[in-house]
Amino acid sequence: MKFIDEFRDPLKAQSLIREIRDLVGQIELCKRRPIGIMEVCGGHTHTIFRYGVNKMLPDEVEFIHGPGCPVCVLPRGRVDDCVALAQRPDVIMTTFGDAMRVTGSKKSLLQAKAEGADVRMVYSPLDALKLAKAHPDREVVFLALGFETTMPSTAFTVLQAQREGISNFSLFCNHITIIPTIKAVLDSPDLQVDAFLGPGHVSMVIGTEPYRFIAERYRKPIVIAGFEPLDILQSVWMVLKQMADGRCEVENQYRRVVPDVGNAQALEAIQTVFELREFFEWRGLGSIDYSGVRMKAPFAGYDAERKFEMPNIKIADPTSCQCGEVLKGVIKPPQCKVFGTSCTPENPLGALMVSTEGACAAYYNYGWIDRESIKPAKVSA
Amino acid sequence: MTPPMLDRQSADISTAQTANGWLARMREKRITLAHGSGGKAMRELVEQLFVTEFNNPLLAALEDQAVVPLDELQQQGTRLAFTTDSYVVNPLFFPGGSIGELAVHGTINDLAMSGARPLFLSCGMILEEGLSIDTLGEVVSRMKHAAREAGVVIVTGDTKVVERGAADKLFVNTAGIGVIRHDVAISATRARPGDVVITNGYIGDHGIAILLARNELALESSVESDTQPLHELVQEMVRVCPDIHCLRDATRGGIATVLNEFAASSNVGIHLSEAAIPVHETVRGACEILGLDPLYLANEGKLVAIVPREQADPIVEAMRTHPAGRDSAIIGEVKETPNGAVVMATAFGGTRVVDTLIGDQLPRIC
């Protein structure tokens, strides 16, 4: 596959790894302890484990898997609201595939569907709008999730619904915004992160400027990274190069997709439809101020929270769950008390075990076997 | 390969008689509850459609069971293989096949994976009220051709009709009987360190063909289901190496699931090499777009075998001479560790675990 295979070239990977080793030798900090690089985005976590990138790096460089899986961080109370909505006979609940498996305090959308709720998987909010047109006698609710990556498509869908006068469509809005989230991670007193890989697709929308405070105020290098394994390796190299040179900057490895100024049209659609919420609850991290968005007053008719009665009960995270510490890099997933025992992908207790992009699920699925026990297979044919 | 008591001539007569013939004779154009009631309508359906199409003396006897003389089975082996599988695929027809081919090939393949020579199939149909007789006729015709090409005979059957909504158009169950020769002992527990892992060609075609045939994704591609019977290929493999250790067809859950079963049952570590696993470009492309992993995609004509290392090259060579094994390849090897797990050297140069799937593969959102 052209345009993809180029970014998975094993020979280029080997030469990058050699250069990374050279840089590690030049960084003083590496002599005392491993460097922690947080990849903020769940897509990066997935690539790292899927291609075994973590197993290729020298021991002095470790990935800390950040909070960037929007499916994982949806709190249990919000899932309960969603299940309650889905169980109304007049509602068709629609959402992206992996959001169906997230459990609330009692059940997931997938379980509600098995019990008779009309829950449908869609690939885009526009599919949900199409359903609304096809079923004018039902209320179609779209469970909107994600950072600035998915926010524009939701916003455009609402604007289209408004233009076409479709009134039986609404959003249950759980969008979150990236900058306050990174700031919350940076402000936690037990943080063990030395540098960041910035989220590629979020940055395609917001540009590179909003990250400047990370480099300037918190003195941490950040490199906006693409999602192919060579993108990750090159971004790690760029982070280490900054550290070796004693620089803290915002750099953009993903120039082929991310313009420094972002996408003006997408930002405008977000501005038109959404506004910040003062409080928003995260699974595993507690409340992060101004990290969630809701719909502005003129779009109240498309806001499921205003349109329907919902239980709206806060459900605390299980006390045994250590997602917060994993997210901040204080512990690694297997060091959590419940990892692999009472918290597994079949039965997730914590946020990070929920989706394959969550750090714990990725560890569980791809990474739990220690480095030494795996040597590449030698195959003739 | 036709069992000895059924001569080919009787099977061939059917073609001329039935091409469009039976449909004209059917009074109804849609299935009604009467077709499952045991009365005249049902008898008409059974005789005009099933008996005529599947045409063979064991079925035509119209007894409650097919009766098979044991001594003729004994000439072919010492043990019986017996299996059953139900087919509920949606849509009924898809690029490369239909529920009809699946119902024949799937059960043949389940028998074949023991090393058995498949001989007889049953055909149980659950029909939804309102199903068009044309559709049913097309499925039955596909089953007839698939069975004839594979040299197996559909010797007994059953039809039920359920009310509209109680089933989705048409479900098929087929059970099958085959005979295993005395020197073959295939089992998921027999993988040993040093053994080699083989597959018979490109993986994931069926899974992607079905996903795209549902038309929910607005993606177009040329991928066709790989549905095919594997028993002749297996007979060829067994001829070259009777001592095949493990053998399974990689249907739901893909080759990853089968290999995890082998690793767990045999207490060994299976090491794959991603670069050696055959995946069509179009399937890789669809997986990229949808966030799926070809290792977990369903196949309907792919097997995974674990064989002693010294036999690997002759087996692969023999497999490649058979149409169902043209693209056979060695894709990995068995080691002592990690115990009970499958790991893979990625084409990129890293390593990762290939775990059992939790539930369905659901597309990722971003």
From TrEMBL, chain A:
Keywords: Iron, Metal-binding. GO terms for biological process: protein maturation. GO terms for molecular function: 4 iron, 4 sulfur cluster binding; carbon monoxide binding; iron ion binding. InterPro entries: Hyd_form_HypD, HypD_1, HypD_2_sf. Pfam families: HypD. Belongs to the HypD family. NCBIfam families: hypD. This is Fe-(CN)2CO cofactor assembly scaffold protein HypD.
From TrEMBL, chain B:
GO terms for molecular function: lyase activity. Its EC number is 4.2.1.-. Residues 63-180 form the PurM-like N-terminal domain. It holds the Pfam family AIRS. Residues 192-343 form the PurM-like C-terminal domain. Keywords: Lyase. Belongs to the HypE family. This is Hydrogenase maturation protein, carbamoyl dehydratase. It comes from Nitrospira defluvii. The gene is hypE.
